[in-house]
Amino acid sequence: MYVRTANINDIQYADELCIWYEESAKQRKTGIAKRDPIYIRKKMETENAIIAFDDDGLLAGFSYIETYEEEKFVVNSGLIVRPDMRDSGIGRKIKMSIFKLSRTKFPNAKIFSITTSLAVMKMNYNLGYKPVTFSEITQSEDFWKGCQGCKNHDILMENERKMCLCTGLVYDNLNDQFAQSKSKQIELELQSFRENIEMNKYSSLLNFFTKKSKKKPDN
């Protein structure tokens, strides 16, 4: 099995994934928001998702990320694994990959999650997430609209979006190895840029004096 960043070539799997989400919601009898194929395809096209395949090249799992409040918050959502692939370890690989993708693409954002899944909670704890109240995650209406398809949406609204059956979790270590690697990368790019500027200046001066030295003196 292998896990990688999803891309535009994976949009063919969007419909199948949405069926998985719907079936999972029915089996667990706990509300998870329905997903739309158009929404899933967008995640693939922007490469804000992780996709997994088994050894035969068949779809095995998926997860995606979304940003809110001008990239102040990032959510890892929609972690789904094909039923016969559960307990194979692929869920942990997807979770780690989507986490790394989030920290690499959005190093200044807090990563949050709301979930009813004990397995997801355990993986989040191992990554360094901590439980928080809903007031400490994004208040973006765009995010909370995603809960409207959940069977527990009424509970959420009755509690004024302060609590539900889901648990809120946040990763807010913005000075971790991923952020430091990003800073080093930016520093190297700036250094290279400055060196190119200096080299261009040197080349321009060299050309100027070369042309001047070749110029014939006036009679």
What does this structure look like?
By secondary structure, this protein is of the alpha+beta class. It has one domain: Aminopeptidase. The protein is 45% helix and 19% strand. The chain has seven helices and seven strands, in the order βααβββαβαβααβα. A seven-stranded mixed sheet has the order 1-2-3-4-5-7-6, sandwiched between helices. A hairpin with a 5-residue loop joins β2 and β3. α1 crosses α2 and α3 packs across α4. The chain is elongated, with a radius of gyration of 24 Å. The model has no long low-confidence stretch (mean pLDDT 84).
Gross morphology:
elongated
Tell me roughly what share of residues is in helical segments: 40-55%
CATH architecture: 3-Layer(aba) Sandwich
Widest sheet: strand order? Answer: 1-2-3-4-5-7-6
**What is the structural class?**
alpha+beta
Q: Specify the oligomeric state.
A: single chain
- Stretches where pLDDT falls below 50 for ≥5 residues? none
In CATH terms, what is the fold-level topology? Answer: Aminopeptidase
Order of helices and strands: EHHEEEHEHEHHEH
Report the total helices.
Answer: 7
Can I get a quick summary?
InterPro entries: Acyl_CoA_acyltransferase. It contains seven helices and seven strands.
